[in-house]
Design brief:
This protein has a four-stranded mixed beta sheet. It is an alpha+beta fold and 148 residues long. It is 41% helix and 21% strand.
Amino acid sequence: MDFGKFKYESALKAREARRNQQQTVIKEMKLRPKIDPHDYETKKGHVVRFLKAGDKVKVTIMFRGREQSRPELGFRLLRRLSEEISELGFVEASPKQDGRNMIMVLAPHRATKAAAVAATAAGAKPGREPREDDGAAPAAAPAETTVE
């Protein structure tokens, strides 16, 4: 067998295998235990956006000073976040204390990830709903009125 032909075919197989691979992207969101409700909603919105895009999210709660003696506050916050986003994703790694930080990993459901991949293939930005003004739709003409 020709060695050049063998090398060429193995390179084709390797290129095809790389094309079918899926990149896992892990986004990180950092919180504090005493977070304001509005700030929490903003951060939760970012987590929702990441999960809709099909990315995993690493949620980190940073403890400072005396907060380290109250890890249940961070645990409660992470549990609340996981319950609120349960329709988009699931807890892949449960909350665990790592020094000054508490870490939890969220992953999107398979259907969410498949939808994000399909949206990316179609050319739309993942995690974003199409708006009415997207595309080249003409403006609606005013309705004609008849006066009698």
